[in-house]
Amino acid sequence: MDQLTQFAPIILMFVVVYFFMIRPQMKKAKQEKSFAESLKKGDRVITKSGMHGKVIDFSEKNNSVIIETGAGKITFDRSSISMDMSRKLNEPVKEKK
C-alpha cells in the first residue's frame, strides 16, 4: 500500500497530461482529417500558408487537391488546407444591429 501512495502523484500527472494535452490533440487531428476528406469541388478554402482559392479538382493518387487562385491553378496536399480558416471563410456574414 505504501508503494501505491508513492506512485500516486506520478500516475495522477499522467492522467492529467492525457486529458488536457494528448486527448484534445487527437480529437483535433481526427476533425481535420474528416474535414479534408469532406472537401468537394467548389469549396472556398484557405491553406495553412494563407493562400485563398476554390477547389476545382482532386488527385486521389497523390492525396492532393487542385486549387484555383488569382494566379492560376496550384496543387496542394489535402493536409495543408486550414480547417479553422476555411470554416470562418464560408460562414454566413452576421449583420450588426
- Termini separation comes to 64 Å
- What is the number of independent domains? 2
Net shape: elongated
**What is the element string, with H for helices and E for strands?**
HEEEEH
Supply the CATH architecture of the largest domain. Answer: Roll
Oligomer: single chain
> Count of helical segments?
2
CATH topology of the largest domain: SH3 type barrels
CATH class of the largest domain: Mainly Beta
Strand content: 15-25%
Structural class: alpha+beta
Radius of gyration from the CA trace? 21 Å
Number of DSSP strands?
4
Q: What does the main sheet amount to?
A: 4 strands, antiparallel
Uncertain residue ranges: none
**Main sheet strand line-up:** 1-2-3-4
- Overall pLDDT, averaged? 89
Q: In which range does the helix fraction lie? A: 40-55%
Label this structure with key terms.
97 residues, alpha+beta, 2 domains, 4 strands
Folded structure, characterized:
The chain has a 4-stranded antiparallel beta sheet with strand order 1-2-3-4. The model has no long low-confidence stretch (mean pLDDT 89). The chain is an alpha+beta fold and 97 residues long. It is built from 2 helices and 4 strands. Strand 2 and strand 3 form a beta hairpin. The chain has 2 domains: 38 residues; 58 residues, SH3 type barrels (Roll). It is found in: Cell membrane. Keywords: Cell membrane, Membrane, Protein transport, Translocation, Transmembrane, Transmembrane helix, Transport. It comes from Christiangramia antarctica.
